[in-house]
Design a protein that fits this description.
Number of strands of chain A: 14
Number of domains of chain A: 2
CATH topology of the largest domain in chain A: Rossmann fold
Largest interface: A-B, 16 and 16 residues
Order of helices and strands of chain A: EHEHEHEHHEHEHEEEEHEEHEHEHH
Oligomer: heterodimer
Helix content of chain A: 25-40%
Shape of chain B: globular
Number of helices of chain A: 12
Largest sheet of chain B: 8 strands, mixed
Mean pLDDT of chain A: 94
Radius of gyration of chain B: 21 Å
Order of helices and strands of chain B: EEEEEEEEHHEEEHEHEHEHHHHHEEHH
Low-confidence stretches of chain A: none
CATH topology of the largest domain in chain B: Rossmann fold
Mean pLDDT of chain B: 89
Largest sheet of chain A: 7 strands, mixed
CATH class of the largest domain in chain A: Alpha Beta
Distance between the termini of chain B: 34 Å
Strand order of the largest sheet of chain A: 3-2-4-5-7-6-12
Number of strands of chain B: 16
Strand order of the largest sheet of chain B: 9-10-12-11-13-14-15-16
Strand content of chain B: 15-25%
CATH class of the largest domain in chain B: Alpha Beta
CATH architecture of the largest domain in chain B: 3-Layer(aba) Sandwich
CATH architecture of the largest domain in chain A: 3-Layer(aba) Sandwich
CATH superfamily of the largest domain in chain B: Alpha/Beta hydrolase fold, catalytic domain
Helix content of chain B: 25-40%
Structural class of chain B: alpha/beta
């Protein structure tokens, strides 16, 4: 049975159901224990934004509060994964990956390859991404391109509660390391979510809206900004197709190319900084594979090449807006 | 000149969850003479795209709705009126028209679907209609109760209609205790027991028709009549590429062409339909349920159950409806029945109850009220009122 659920609750439910189903699933991270059912002040905890609230009461010591040392517990999670557990480690903010990057890109990402396929590392690293939370330059970045760049890692960034639950279950069951990016400004967004466990496969983009005039590609929060832009443009008779990539590695370029072969116009929206971004990658791929179909130069709508500003006014300007997407689409429509 | 001469053309409400639809295009021009049953416009919802048949006759004086626009259900899309009605009367009618508010929208939404715990597990169902005989709708392999979205409300005008999701399907329990026709017939019995229906008219589609027939042959006292639509269980042949494709498809790209097999007009397969089916297939347990059912019912691409002889012997009043272009189970298999009324509907595929809904609805009602014609009012949507 489906009911309306926020993305935060959908993620909680995915963790709960996989922990119930599979005793090898463990959850570890900073301040993740606690939440409803726990005694005393613990009731207020359950992760920095309460995503794991209530899980400790149900699953006990399979949730581990770790010291404030990402280097240590991300390494421990990777090691546990190679030894038969399916750890879900919460890195809190993806911005903190700097201190545990070797564990992720030089260890977890390489084991399957370097051990000739004999080693598996079924670890999921959950972390918050994205700006708009007034959390300043060290807690607001969209670092998805950095992980997408590295072979051996799978990178996921859902735009809604339904996808978040299915993709997280898929991540936990997957035998490779997965970087699971949760946009903090989408935690409260609700969609219909089935009560049952289900998966959403990696490498399958979602066509959120169909249209024949222009293709807008994005992920995470940008899917919603694209939706606002498409509404505005529909009022002018311009029909946009919106593609939600859902996973950035593997990435479903086939769906994007097919769409551009139909529309002839491509607008790539990315909350990440522009150099070596997902937007740049998609634009390059489409230019190479569907050049003959393009009626205009692909447009990139991204954050600027600056840190995320702390000033609210500047932060709002930093994040790609529906207006900028509308302008970019119009640019591709110009004769 | 009064408004009594003006007949509105409204955005239809298809099925339980529709709140709005896109008027894809008009199929008739202003000034055209419309007969009941004429296809007048194309409408697309998040579930399906389909032509809308006129429920009333008249001259289309005004197209109010614009192609490509989205409208709520019951929004005014066009105006039918005789030539003597003056333009300013029509203008005033259009200006004054208000979309009627849904009676207690929230309450209605909450009661769209119900759940009942049965001996076969928790089953989802919908019920419509306040009086008349009980009519139970049973969907096919991989389907769910929304397969009846063009039927349930129309049938409910004369009957108490129940549609439910078989175990392993829709939003019912996904585990199948016994993945066989006998097991599914037991689930039907469990459903009837749980909602306390002693006997009912059964309407089954495809595999659901075989379930209905299996149950009817085993428990004839609980079945008042059988309507078998694009039925399984009447012949050996079945499109095994469809079955294998449906079970095996893991992505939108794989599933969409498989679904083309279901309709004479493949344009009906839209993104919403493909996405909904993928979401269903990706629920834990569904893949196993479908695989085990397919292995039991269609081993080696051949139907294992042959029920025609038993259906004939049961003496039950039986109607078989088939789309002439059924690409999943050939319409010729209706010939296996010797004691049934057989209706082949031209230009329809396997999902004939969706593609030619008003014709199918009329046939079902005619069938269940056979011998009691006084219960039948003229049915809009069948050219010439085919009773």
């Amino acid at each position: 049975m489906a009911r309306n659920l926020s993305m935060k609750d959908a993620i909680n439910e995915a963790l709960d159901q996989e922990m119930t189903k599979d005793p090898t699933v463990i959850v570890m991270g900073e301040d993740i224990v606690g939440g409803s059912g726990s005694p005393g002040e613990n009731d207020a905890w359950g992760g920095v934004l309460g995503v794991t609230k209530g899980l400790y009461a149900k699953h006990g010591d399979r949730l581990m509060d770790t010291p404030l040392s990402e280097s240590a517990y991300i390494g421990a999670a990777v090691g546990a994964a190679t030894c038969g557990l399916r750890p879900v480690a919460e890195l809190m903010f993806l911005d903190f990956m700097g201190v545990c990057f070797d564990q992720i890109f030089n260890q977890a990402a390489k084991f399957r390859y370097m051990f000739g396929g004999k080693a598996e590392t079924p670890v999921t690293i959950r972390a918050m991404v994205g700006a708009g939370f007034r959390a300043a330059a060290q807690h607001s970045q969209m670092l998805t391109p950095i992980f997408t760049h590295i072979p051996g890692l799978k990178v996921v960034c859902p735009s809604n509660a339904y996808d978040a639950k299915g993709l997280l279950i898929q991540s936990i069951r997957d035998n490779d390391p997965v970087i699971f990016c949760e946009h903090k400004n989408l935690y409260a967004a609700e969609t219909d979510v089935p009560e049952e466990s289900y998966t959403v496969p990696f490498g399958e983009a979602n066509i959120v809206r169909e249209g024949g005039d222009a293709t807008i590609v994005g992920y995470g929060l940008m899917v919603h900004r694209a939706g606002e832009a498409a509404e505005t443009l529909a009022g002018e008779g311009i029909q946009c197709e919106i593609i939600d990539l859902r996973t950035l590695s593997p990435i479903d370029t086939d769906t994007v190319v097919e769409s551009v072969e139909n529309t002839g116009r491509l607008i790539c929206v990315d909350e990440a900084n522009p150099r070596c971004s997902i937007a740049a990658d998609i634009a390059a791929t489409v230019s190479q594979e569907a050049f003959a179909s393009l009626k205009a130069a692909p447009q990139l709508v991204t954050a600027p090449h600056t840190p995320v500003p702390f000033s609210p006014a500047l932060e709002d300007l930093y994040i790609p807006s529906a207006e900028r997407i509308v302008d970019a689409v119009r640019k591709t429509m110009a004769p | 000149m009064s408004e009594a001469n003006i007949t509105p053309v409204l955005m239809p409400k298809w099925g339980l969850s529709m709140s709005e639809g896109v008027l894809v295009d008009w199929l008739v021009d202003e000034g055209a003479e419309i007969a009941v049953g004429d296809e007048i416009m194309e409408v697309e919802t998040d579930k399906i795209a389909s032509a809308v048949e006129a429920a009333d006759a008249g001259i289309l004086r005004r197209r109010v709705g614009a192609a490509g626009e989205t409208y709520p259900i019951r929004a005014l899309l066009g105006v039918l009126a005789p030539p003597e009605v003056e333009d300013d009367i029509i203008d005033a009618y259009i200006a004054a028209y208000e979309v009627p508010a849904d009676e207690d929208d929230e309450e209605a939404a909450a009661s769209l679907y119900e759940f009942v715990d049965t001996a076969a597990g928790r089953l989802r169902f919908a019920r419509r209609g306040d009086d008349g005989p009980s009519l139970v709708l049973i969907h096919g392999f991989g389907g769910d109760l929304d397969n009846w979205l063009f039927n349930i409300d129309a049938l409910a005008e004369r009957a108490r209609v129940y549609a439910f999701d078989l175990p392993g399907h829709g939003q019912s329990v996904k585990t199948l205790e016994d993945p066989s026709l006998v097991g599914l017939a037991a689930a039907l019995q469990a459903f009837l027991d749980a909602i306390e229906i002693d006997s009912a008219h059964l309407v089954g589609h495809s595999m659901g028709a075989a379930v209905a027939a299996r149950f009817a042959c085993d428990a004839p006292a609980r079945v008042q009549s059988l309507t078998l639509i694009g039925a399984a269980g009447l012949g050996p042949a079945i499109n095994s590429a469809y079955i294998d494709g449906f079970v095996g498809a893991a992505s939108r790209r794989e599933l969409k062409p498989v679904l083309f097999n279901l309709f004479a007009d493949s344009e009906l397969v839209n993104r919403g339909m493909v996405d909904d089916l993928l979401k269903y297939k990706r629920i834990d347990g569904v893949q196993e349920a479908l695989s085990s059912l397919a292995a039991e019912l269609f081993p080696g691409g051949v139907q294992s159950a042959q029920l025609a002889g038993q259906i004939d012997a049961s003496g039950l009043s039986t109607l078989a409806i088939w789309g002439s272009d059924d690409a999943v189970i050939p319409a010729a298999q209706a010939q296996a029945l010797n004691n049934a009324v057989v209706e082949i509907i031209d230009g329809a595929g396997h999902m004939v109850q969706m593609e030619k809904a008003s014709a199918v609805n009329a046939l079902i009602l005619t069938h269940i009220f056979k011998g009691d014609a006084t219960k039948l009012r003229p049915w809009p949507g069948i050219p010439g009122d085919g009773y």
